[in-house]
Amino acid sequence: MSDSVVSISGLSKTFAKADITALDDISLEIGQREFVSLIGPSGCGKSTLLRAVGDIVEPTAGSVEVNGKPARRARLDGDYGIVFQAPVLYDWRTVAKNIALPLEMLGWDRARRVARVKEMVELVDLAGFEDHHPWQLSGGMQQRVSIARAFSFSPALLLMDEPFGALDEMTRERLNLELLRLWLETESTVIFVTHSISEAVFLSTRVVVMSARPGRVSAIVPIDLPQPRMAATREEARFFELVTEVREALHAGGADLA
Amino acid sequence: MTATALSRRAQDWLPAALVFAFGLVAWQWLLPDVVHVQRFLLPRFSAVMSTFWIERSSLFAAGWFTFKEALGGFVLGCSTAFIGALVLARWKPLGRAVLPYAIAANAIPIIAFAPITNAWFGLLSPWSKIVISAVLCFFPVLVNTLRGLTSVRPESLELMRSYAASEAQIFRRVRIPTSLPFVFTALKVACVLSMIGAVVGDYFGGSTTALGVQIQSSVALSRYETAWAAILVASILGIALYGSVALAERLVVGWHPSTREHRE
Amino acid sequence: MSTIAATIAGRAKAAAATRSALSRGGVLALVLAALWGLWEGYRWLWIATGWGWPFAVDDITMPHLHAIVAQLFEPSRTGGPLLISVLFHSAVFTAKEAVVGFAVGASVGFLLGVAISQFRVLQRGLMPYVVASQTIPILAIAPMVVVGLGNMQVAGWTPAPWLRVAVIAAYLTFFPVTVNTIRGLQSADPRALELMHSYAAGRWAVLWKLRVPSAMPYLFSAFKVSATASVVGAIIGEAPSSIPDGLGGAIINFNQYYALAPESLWATNLVAAALGITFFLVALGVERVAVRRAPEHLA
Fold this sequence. Notes:
heterotrimer; A: about 260 residues; alpha/beta; Rossmann fold; 6-stranded mixed β-sheet; 4-stranded antiparallel β-sheet; 8 helices; 10 strands; globular; C: about 300 residues; mainly alpha; MetI-like fold; about 75% helix; disordered C terminus
């Protein structure tokens, strides 16, 4: 497939020390402007898969290509934006400077950085907080900063590892909507790891269901909910059908364990 | 500030002020007149103060001489330790191997090596005290800086990795800023140690213009008031040095939510 | 089958322990060899080039390391006992001062810490001075205390020299212990405090069953600092008043003959270093044993 942003083939990862097969022969194609969620029980290797795509962990076998380049090349070219469960902001930098960090690393000049940071701050609704330090913000606001930082340099691919896992339900749903808006506006491609079925269905164009030990792809559920999605989308009948479908796929995958 | 806030503040400081006043009264009258603590153990407050005033120029000349030694040792020891910590943090296996030895080296009574630095640089050379002070400062700063440089959370490094950051960039943008609260904790310890190195190093011999030598010879000549006045000078200089480091900490690590958490 | 698995796991564990002990020993040997190499290499280079900066190197300023070690096994004076046995007795004398000082200083420091943390008035009144005491070179008063106490007479009794030095060691031990006791007693988990409150536990029950156990890690970390400080206090206490029986006295003594036999002073400092490290390792070992159980108390 020539229009794939991410092309994973035969990817395996074993941790020799702990004797664990985290990923076993995973193949997956992700197209331009897709929003793909990885969901599965703990220990199914979804975070490891994300990190293998981002060239943070080295696969034992198989390959990952991003925009037709090996993952390492893509990383060196600055193709990735990453968001972790913890915001991972630097306490010594203000909100604006945290967002500007990747831009500095990419060598953007000052004027361009300032303009982009202003744009991002408005996109994630943090105007007025530019000069605050991270510890002066709530958990939800901190995560918005880290999302703005990830989107700031328009990376080819966004990798999100349970970014809303530590937030309360209300904040989470609001940030889900914001993320979708950002995704639509920036025309980016996202891989999103989550524990929450409804979150996966609400956000994604495709949900990849994984099973544990060894980590495998057990099902892929396309999500045909119309765009743009809104709060009301969560109350549609089709939404519940898809949630049920993903839940059943998860249980079918989990049944292998018993 | 409102009147209630003012009175609350007064309440906060009242006990400390009372203790201070009581301490002075005890020093001046209670200890010598009631408990009969003799002059060779602790001379009267007024006697120490008048000696301090009479001999102020020679005391502060000695203090300044010793303070320069302490400052030299502090700068030399801390900067060497900081560079050493950077090297050890850069080559992690080396750092892991060396760290326990650096901690153990901290348990060596380094000040007892003062006679040897006297033999190296000469009894009267300020370098003998500078080097002892530097070595005293070296190990706490090395150990704390190394801890700070390596206490970066893994996601932080993964993030920098995703930006294809070089080691130098990771140090500049993540490791060094993370380590600063640890560094200042160590610097505060080190500034006291540097004063100790310069003053106590003199007890093993040194220039007669030095504070430590004056303290020791005053004790030997039963001029106890002068000795205590000299201690007062050493304390004033010690507090001044500590205060400047604390001020620098506030300026440099002002971003930190609670610098207190990192104090040992 | 499970027993076989257990045996195999046990063996693997034992093998891993042996491996780590071996590698630790290897690192120790490596570090010692590196130190030796640095010393002798520096010596050789400076002597060969004749560099005078920062100081001129010769057999007096930097004796061979093997000469220093060999000196330990030479008679301390003609016909006298071996230097190592003299220094051993000095080290025991200094250790006695340090141990007594440490015990007194740690007890007083702990009790004062408990008192300060229990009474707000004391906290407000004394804490600023306890903190300020950390910023001044306290060790500098050693000569005054040792000489002053030597002039003292209480009902015809003058404290023995070693006891006067122990006062210095106690003094240096006291401050870190007090500061960390207060910090540790305040570190108790607020939820655990609420739990104790729900049991209607009294002030003393909260103190002994919750606060003191929570303070243990802080206390032992202070002990490590204090153990080292007590040795420094003992050596420095001896030096200015020339109490001859301990390591501080030995340092003063051999310092006078440095030009003739520098190895003796170096050897004495080596023993002093060993004493300091021994005190630290003992404090570390006690901490490992004592604090290992502490987290369970907290749970």
